[in-house]
Design a protein that fits this description.
This protein is α+β, with helices and mostly antiparallel strands and about 220 residues long. The chain is built from 6 helices and 13 strands. The protein has helices spanning about 35-40, 45, 80-105, 110-115, 115-135, 205-220; strands at about 5, 15, 20, 25, 35, 60-65, 65-70, 135-140, 145-150, 155-160, 170-180, 180-190, 195. The longest helix has 26 residues, at about 80-105.
């Protein structure tokens, strides 16, 4: 069976004979546009995703009225290593620096300033622990607009991008490496704006997210 690929512009099939791996170019004869071959080759697994069977930890909710929401939440086993590390790295120094001052009721400005890096480190570690325990990645799609949220509760990072039939949704290699293996992330491009996310997600989860976004853009 001859391989075919999907044009991100018009959703038509691109035959393997119209691709050139060496120059990274694929020509869509339906709309006459050229696209990077690497981008459509990476989308083959997106098109094969069964959207009716979300990966473990992924919840899909919403409707045509409220929009579609896809949430990934899973307890990270690393939290059981991070908690004792945080107590040793920040908790113990903070107790040694500020404990005697609180007990004696006397404030030492120089010593307190020396403890600020440990205090900031403790806040960062607390945020990391909270994210590992109850944080989530969430995508909300409604009326051609997509919001990508990473955080805990209402606190976190939000990025927004429009989804249109001309949007390109693909999986590309990121700069993140795990055991020296490059990890892919989801890339959304619309009218010159690009959003990238998901390099730290499990492969099946980021592929599911990409598949939902791809289908949502085609449905606009």
């Amino acid at each position: 069976m001859t391989a075919t690929y999907r044009c991100p512009h018009c959703d038509s099939d691109i035959a393997a004979s119209d691709t050139n791996v060496a120059t990274d170019i694929a020509l869509c004869r339906a709309c006459g546009k050229s696209v990077p071959f690497s981008s459509i080759a990476e989308n083959v697994d997106i098109d094969a995703v069964d959207l009716a069977s979300p990966p473990k930890g992924v919840r899909v909710s919403g409707s045509q009225i409220s929009g579609i929401e896809i949430t990934y939440r899973k307890l990270s086993p690393l939290v059981f290593f991070i908690i004792p590390l945080a107590l040793l790295w920040t908790g113990l120094p903070l107790a040694m620096i500020y404990g005697p001052q609180i007990a004696s009721g006397k404030f030492d400005a120089t010593l307190s300033l020396a403890g600020l890096p440990f205090f900031i480190g403790a806040l960062l570690m607390l945020w990391l622990i909270a994210f590992m325990l109850c944080g989530c990645r969430r995508i909300h799609i409604d009326r051609g607009q997509c919001e990508i949220f990473t955080g805990v509760g209402l606190i976190g990072r939000r990025r927004r991008i429009a989804l249109t039939p001309e949007s390109s949704v693909r999986l590309e290699l990121s700069s993140l490496r795990v055991n020296n293996v490059p990890q892919r992330h989801v890339v959304i491009s619309t009218d010159g704006q690009t959003v990238k996310f998901g390099a730290t997600l499990p492969e099946n989860v980021r592929t599911f997210f990409a598949a939902v976004l791809s289908k949502a853009s085609q449905a606009q």
